[in-house]
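From the pipeline queue, job 12 of 40. The input is one protein chain; the requested action is below.

Action: predict structure.
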Amino acid sequence: MKAAIARKHGGPEVIEIADVPPPPPLSHPSLSPDSVLLAVRAAALNHLDLWVLRGLPGLELDFPHIGGADMAGTVAEVGAGVEGFAPGDRVLVNPGLWDGECEWCLKGEESLCQSYRILGEHVNGGFAELIAVPARNLLPIPDDLTFVEAAAVPLAYQTAWRGLMRRAALQAGETVLVTGASGGVATAAIQIARHAGATVYAVTSGSENVRRVRELGAEHVIDRSEASPPSPPPPPFSEAVWKLTGKRGVDVVFDSVGAAIWSDVMRVLAKNGRLVTYGATTGADAQINIRHVFWKQLQIIGTTMASRSEFEQVMSLVFAKKLEPVIDVVFPLERAREAYERLASGEHFGKIILTVGD
């Protein structure tokens, strides 16, 4: 089968299209009888794919590696123990893998599973024509949702939903600052925060991104690049947020930028504010003023992916068109390297999608 693979760590330049062996038959002892074989029709890139490609501490890949956590397609074959799905069904895939047996899974907290893994990171993912996945990871998709749209939502929307609605316990009437607002998780977070009745502040770069972020529902958008030589650099976004909120600050900051902006983030949190972190694009070693934490009684909250029930909850809102995926550009699988290059450039807005097959 055709797949976009990496034979070693590196940047987008190591991505190539190759013929690789397909998954083994569902009767093979390496696969559970509760597995399905999925014919992938569309798969989305995430920043996770770049980090995996470059190499993550403690993550050892079996090369050649196939990326891609997000995917949608049609069921090609079902295992002997599968019920509720049949060949030809249109589905999307929850990219989280859990054992269902540890203490966290028994509590319904699958993303805290002792053996939690993510498709495309710890095991091969969806940038290929076929993939074998557990049937419990599938959700049927409605006829009015395209494969491209379906592939754009699983990782981003579940991450944003858990981070805001479960971990931060966001309430109607509160204020939220979304940083890096042009990315896939961030664009999902803006929609989810607005759906929850919150007022959204956002930080992005460039007039076109500012316009699109406003269209998504952010009432206040700070352009961090709003200066041109010989003008002085723009002030920190914290200064703009502080003024916009009447020196109150925001109730929640939803961030994956990481170390480069955490000092600003801590300044803009209101009393009893919550910083929700789901990534560290600019580095993991942040410096914060601890006095801000105890004096304003702040919370620093980590979040990763979502539980199975949270995933199904947010997907139901997507299926009902209450949340809509944001698509940047669509490439065929054969142009996977170009898709990785666009992601690495930071010029995208929303999700970059690869289409597979007809």
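Job complete. The mean pLDDT is 93.
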